[in-house]
Design goal:
This is Molybdopterin-dependent oxidoreductase. The protein has 735 residues and is of the alpha/beta class. Among the domains are: 195 residues, Dimethylsulfoxide Reductase, domain 2 (3-Layer(aba) Sandwich); 128 residues, Beta Barrel (Barwin-like endoglucanases), CATH 2.40.40.20. The protein contains 26 helices and 29 strands. The strands form 8 sheets. Strands 5-4-17-16-15-6-7 form a 7-stranded mixed β-sheet, covered by helices on one side. A hairpin with a 2-residue loop joins strand 4 and strand 5. It is globular. The structure holds ligand MGD (2 copies), iron/sulfur cluster (SF4) and molybdenum atom (MO). Iron/sulfur cluster (SF4) binds next to helix 1.
């Protein structure tokens, strides 16, 4: 074996960059973790979190066997006993109160576990509950909604073609810390520096001078929550100054005039004060964007977690279209994933439907099959028909990750039954009656179902399980739980249950004549690998089960040492479009209807102090604080504040402060930092590991404060249901 390939290949499951790793191990212990230099996609890059996979694998607090709560105390049991407990309690709730009484919530790590991602929807379907929630409504639902309404599918998300781009305008993203999001772009820092070295420009719009903003050619520290007005003004300037040039896309557009009319009332001069920027700066930015040979506008988390998150997400792509940069090399482009991408499959263009049902208490509409996660607490806490009495949480820690976390914590205590699929006893799962663990990432194979649809290069990569396991994996639990809910024999061999499910799915999705040969070709080994093979073979590069000789299948991907490169992104309009009109909808009525709200909010008085979040390269949402390698070093859960704001309040660096917001109050250490726009403070989320009855020995030594105890669960973007997390009014005083 050459040194390039020494060590087993593993796709890093920790963030969206999905870097290829080389992991060496001996005697069941990890001895070395490096970037896989032969990975065509990540080219050897890795960040410190990947090295902590060793800590995760060896963490004594990580659950290895199911837990059942007996007399208020968790005891380890075998899988059968754990499922018997679920059977007794969950089926009882279902029988007595019906499907909606059982809610399900799925969190971020699930998107990195193909078994959870592939089998969770089946369980939800089997239960038949309307009460499905996920981290998507704390995150990217606005982008998925705007993509759906403009291009016809929830996952038709355009990503900056950074390697061929000359001008990148980035709003509300800090990829130097996050490693990119809704944009799978390993080693983003090198790629951004390369862009600059080519003579290109990076412009970052962010209330904080982040790591990415510090690298940028220009940083605009706008007022939190004002992106919609900035984007409106940029578009208005393009129209006003005759800079609108959609080019090749012109013949595929609907609604150009409506868009023009919508943005016209917002020239830079009208929004400058609201944005906290100079009108001339905004005007010049529009001109720079229009003048750049190849440019992309990218909006991420900070633009989604606002009242106008959907409008922002829409206008970001509208700008890409108006400047002729959507779907062209060096602009914002659509990946063509090897598998699982609905926008690559043939079929009628139907667009998307939403609002098919409403949440019981607040009447929030369903979006992409789910309800806003900020409705979860009230659905549990509000009595009446349809009340949620049981919860299944899958890789989700909403007590720390969802606004109103403290109130949700209380609500979880009122449930009749709670089942968690998780790897820790933490702030959320401590409420569970049964916990079913996942295996360590080193014990499971992996294919990136989601991130291959958001990647800056098309590729197909697979990683094998590196270490053996003697416990069931999470998908087996989900499979048995599905059988249990369906009243089938859940104790049957896994292969039998999985075969039955596969047969049903083939019957649903394939013409009859095709089913038997496909079924035979997929083999007898149960589990997600078979589904990946199916998706790859029916996908756009696939062998179509023999009809496309030489085409892709899982065997080929497995045989490649670090995956198969399928090349740079290519233009996909109109082939990609799935809107009923077959065109790009530049002015969907849902967004046009936001005009009065935008007009009303323009002159809202500014709160004195607002809170935004923060990510750190060495931390990941709520669950990696128990890994010693990442936990060491300076305290990370600090409240950052501009020195001018601090002196105004008589606060000094390092002071313990009390922060009060609409959801409650917490305490944190103050860190003075001139990286913040005055009037803005920043606290990271995912902390607050000081709850009793958790099993996080390392994390609880430096617990930090729960940001989401400050934020209330009542603020949403009404279109996408996404939570408002940015720009929340707070007060800060000495504790
Ligand atoms: N205020 C504020 N709140 C935020 C954010 C913010 O920026 N500001 N960001 C939001 C965003 S973008 C997101 S995505 C959410 C994330 O929030 P969540 O979706 O809650 O995700 P995590 O906090 O990453 O972890 C959830 C759980 O997954 C478990 N877990 C880890 N690995 C595995 C595994 O392999 N199997 C199983 N079964 N479980 C596992 C962990 O133990 C943890 O309990 O937080 C959101 N909350
Ligand atoms: N190291 C690390 N990596 C991660 C994660 C992590 O927790 N740690 N989480 C992962 C997850 S789940 C996600 S979703 C991604 C998120 O990845 P990113 O989208 O890059 O998210 P953040 O790093 O939170 O950057 C959001 C930025 O928005 C800014 N912001 C806040 N309010 C506003 C506003 O009103 N307008 C504008 N323009 N900007 C604003 C913030 O200051 C912040 O710099 O990161 C992923 N990667
Ligand atoms: S950037 Fe993300 S995917 Fe890459 S090594 Fe770090 S945690 Fe893993
Ligand atoms: Mo996220």
């Amino acid at each position: 074996m050459s040194d390039r390939t020494a060590g087993s290949y593993r796709i890093c499951p920790l963030c969206e960059a999905a870097c290829g790793l080389r992991i060496e191990h001996a005697g069941g212990l990890v001895t070395r973790i490096r970037g896989a230099e032969d990975d065509p996609f990540s080219r050897g890059y890795l960040c410190p979190k990947a090295v902590a996979l060793k800590d995760l694998h060896e963490d004594p607090d990580r659950l290895r066997r199911p837990l059942v709560k007996r007399g208020g105390v968790f005891v380890e049991v075998g899988w059968e006993e754990a499922l018997e407990e679920v059977e007794a309690q969950l089926l009882n709730t279902l029988r007595l109160y019906g499907p909606d009484s059982v809610a399900a919530v799925i969190g971020n790590p699930a998107v990195h576990r193909m078994g959870l991602l592939a089998y969770f929807p089946r369980l939800v379907r089997a239960i038949g509950t309307a009460n499905v929630f996920s981290a998507s409504t704390l995150d990217q639902m606005p982008k998925q909604l705007s993509s759906a309404l403009m291009f016809g599918h929830w996952f038709s998300v355009a990503v900056p073609d950074v390697d061929r781009c000359d001008f990148l305008l980035m709003l509300g993203g800090n990829p130097l810390a996050s490693n990119g999001s809704m944009w799978t772009v390993p080693d983003v820092k090198t790629r951004l520096k390369d862009l600059q070295a080519r003579g290109g420009k990076l412009v970052v719009v962010d209330p904080r001078r982040t790591e990415t903003a510090a690298l940028a050619n220009q940083h605009l520290a706008l007022r939190p929550g004002s992106d919609a007005y900035l984007l409106l003004a940029l578009a208005a300037t393009l129209f006003e100054e005759g800079l609108v040039k959609p080019g090749r896309l012109s013949e595929h557009l609907n609604g150009l005039d409506d868009l023009c009319a919508f943005v016209a009332p917002y020239p830079p001069e009208r929004v400058a004060a609201r944005c906290g920027l100079e009108a001339a700066t905004i005007r010049q930015l529009a001109r720079d964007l229009a003048a750049a040979p190849r440019a992309a506008v990218y909006g991420r988390l900070g633009t989604c977690t606002q009242r106008f998150g959907s409008v922002n997400s829409w206008l970001v792509d509208a700008l890409n279209i108006l400047t002729g940069n959507l779907d062209r090399e060096g602009g914002a482009m659509f990946p063509k994933a090897a598998g699982f991408a609905a926008n690559t499959l043939p079929g009628p263009a139907k667009g998307v439907r939403m609002g098919r049902r409403k949440s019981r208490v607040s009447g929030a509409p369903e979006v992409y099959g789910e309800l806003p996660i900020t409705c979860l607490r009230e659905e549990i806490a509000t009595p009446g028909p349809g009340q949620v009495r049981a919860l299944i949480s899958v890789a989700s820690n909403p007590v720390l990750s969802c606004p109103g976390g403290a109130a949700l914590d209380e609500a979880l205590g009122q449930l009749d039954f709670m089942l968690s699929l998780d790897v820790y006893v933490n702030e959320t799962t401590r409420h569970a009656d049964v916990i079913l663990p996942s295996l360590s990432p080193l014990q499971t194979p992996h294919y990136d179902i989601a991130f291959s649809q958001l990647s800056i290069r098309n590729h197909a990569r697979w990683s094998e399980a590196l270490l053996p396991a003697d416990e069931p994996d999470d998908w087996e639990y989900l499979l048995r739980l599905t059988a249990l809910v369906q009243g089938r024999n859940w104790r049957a061999p896994v292969a039998e249950l999985d075969d039955a499910m596969l047969a049903e799915e083939l019957a649903r999705s394939l013409p009859e004549a095709f089913r038997a040969p496909v079924r035979a070709a997929l083999g007898d080994a149960p589990g997600p690998a078979r589904l990946v093979d199916l998706a790859l073979r029916l996908g756009p590069y696939g062998d179509q089960f023999g009809r496309q000789p030489g085409g892709l299948n899982l065997d080929q991907v497995r045989a490649a040492p670090a995956g198969i490169d399928l090349g740079a992104l290519q233009p996909r309009v109109p082939e990609l479009l799935r809107t009923p009109s077959g065109r790009i909808e530049l002015a969907p009525p849902e967004f046009l209807a936001e005009a009065p709200a935008l007009a009303a909010a323009l002159d809202e008085p500014a709160p004195e102090l607002v809170l935004i979040g923060r990510r750190d390269l060495r931390s990941n949402n709520s669950w990696m604080h128990n890994l010693p390698l990442l936990a060491k070093g300076p305290e990370r859960c600090t409240l950052q504040m501009h020195p001018a704001d601090a002196s105004q309040r008589g606060l000094s660096d390092g002071a313990l402060v009390r922060i009060e917001g609409p959801g409650g109050q917490v305490q944190a250490r103050l860190e003075l930092s001139d990286t913040l726009r005055p009037g803005v403070v920043s606290l990271p989320h995912g902390w607050g590991h000081d709850q009793p009855d958790t099993r996080l020995r390392v994390a609880s030594e430096r617990p930090g404060a729960n940001l989401n105890a400050l934020v209330s669960d009542g603020q949403r973007d009404p279109l996408s249901g996404n939570a408002v997390l940015s720009g929340v009014a707070v007060t800060v005083a000495v504790a």
